[in-house]
Design a protein that fits this description.
Shape: elongated
Number of domains: 2
Low-confidence stretches: 333-338
CATH superfamily of the largest domain: FAD/NAD(P)-binding domain
Number of helices: 9
Distance between the termini: 39 Å
Bound molecules: flavin-adenine dinucleotide
Radius of gyration: 26 Å
Strand content: 25-35%
Oligomer: single chain
CATH class of the largest domain: Alpha Beta
CATH topology of the largest domain: FAD/NAD(P)-binding domain
Largest sheet: 7 strands, mixed
CATH architecture of the largest domain: 3-Layer(bba) Sandwich
Number of strands: 19
Structural class: alpha/beta
């Protein structure tokens, strides 16, 4: 017999822990399974989370786990390998280590994977001086010599945006052969230098980025390189359940309503598992919202079940005890069986 939970949360990043917190405080039996690979694991600091700005990501999550413990939420390290609907509105959840549990509701908080452009040296420096998000890191590297790698024409827009954080921005066109005239005009107006030619690698000194090297051997001194990693949702469990997707500028993502419900009844998706633009604070907010709505849904589902039983004249032991007490006092109870 498997352990049965009200909710199994898959993924213990900001989104999953936040869902777990509100569900634990709602007295739900909750299991959070976490494979321990949060998206910002390589970053030294987490920025922009009001009251936690600059906190190391691992410390933020450890603090979150301590908060969930207070409410009896169970958290296990591990990877969920499969979620299967049992046909009665509940789910069998199988872990990669062979364990299995049952759940009434599932929260997919599995995050996404950033696919780094295949330029030598770039993946190794990811999250340190190869960056993607000015809102996460821009302040910390302000006024430095920025490079922007453009495997796609839209990266020129990233270069324009970055002029808010440094006036020394060089766009490396890399594999992009052409830009629209209007974009050249904007780049010139913003003071962005543009370098044509393929980037072949990065120059470093004392484990710090010092330059960007082109295939023709030219080296451009730069201390920070911004790239666009392709954000790919970890949606294999949802896909296997038959969840529908929606198109986003970053490619297909699970289709969810504004509360995080997927198209599979009982299965929710929150944080980066549901959208590529969610920052930590948005992911936490989405998890929280889903958690409280799941609790409300379960409360109402249980009440509807009880109503059905009463209509059918089948009373649960709790109701029968209530009837007995009411009859003993000479009352009429709550309108059932008088
Ligand atoms: C380098 C970098 C720096 C960043 N800096 C910032 C910043 O300063 N401020 C900011 O707001 N945002 C920042 N972000 C974005 C931030 O990382 C995300 O917004 C945030 O991690 C999303 O939280 P999440 O809970 O949705 O997903 P995640 O934090 O990625 O957590 C998902 C969790 O689910 C687990 N998981 C996945 N599949 C399974 C499975 N099958 N079974 C069990 N567990 C599973 C993963 O291992 C992971 O632990 C940064 C991102 C990067 C790449």
């Amino acid at each position: 017999m498997y352990d049965a939970y009200d909710v199994v949360v898959i993924g213990g990043g900001a989104a999953g822990l936040s869902a777990g917190l509100v569900l634990g405080r709602s007295r739900r039996r909750v299991l959070v399974v976490d494979a321990g690979e949060p998206r910002n694991a390589l970053a030294a600091h987490m920025q922009g989370y009001l009251s936690r700005d600059g906190m190391p990501p691992a410390e933020f999550l450890a603090e979150g786990r301590r908060e969930l413990e207070r409410y009896g939420v169970e958290m296990v390290p591990g990877r969920v390998a499969e979620v299967a609907a049992d046909g009665d509105g509940e789910f069998d959840v199988r872990l990669a280590d062979g364990g299995a549990v049952r759940a009434r509701r599932i929260v997919m908080a599995t995050g996404l994977v950033d696919e780094i452009p295949p330029v030598p040296g770039v993946a190794e420096r990811w999250g340190r001086d190869v960056l993607h998000c000015p809102y996460c890191h821009g302040w910390e590297v302000r006024d430095q010599a920025f490079g922007v790698l453009a495997p796609e024409p839209f990266n020129s827009h990233q270069a324009l945006l970055l002029t808010q954080w440094s006036k020394d921005v060089t766009l490396f066109l890399h594999t992009v052969r052409e830009l629209p005239d209007a974009e050249w005009e904007r780049l010139a107006a913003a003071g962005v230098s543009v370098v044509e030619g393929e980037v072949a690698g990065l120059e470093t000194e004392d484990d710090r980025l010092t330059g960007v090297r082109l295939a023709d051997g030219r080296v451009f001194p730069r201390s920070v390189l911004f790239i666009s990693a392709k954000p790919v949702p970890r949606d294999n469990l949802l896909t296997a359940l038959g969840a529908r997707t929606r198109e986003t500028p970053a490619g297909p993502y699970p289709a969810v309503d504004e509360a995080g419900r997927t198209t599979v009844p009982g299965v929710w998706a929150v944080g980066n598992a549901a959208g590529p633009t969610e920052q930590v604070i948005n992911a936490a907010s989405a998890g929280y919202r889903a958690g409280l709505l799941i609790n409300a849904e379960l409360v109402m589902a249980d009440i509807e079940t009880e109503v059905g039983r009463r209509r059918a004249g089948v009373f649960s032991p709790r109701v029968e005890a209530e009837v007995a007490r009411t009859v003993a006092k000479g009352g009429r109870g709550h309108g059932f069986g008088g």
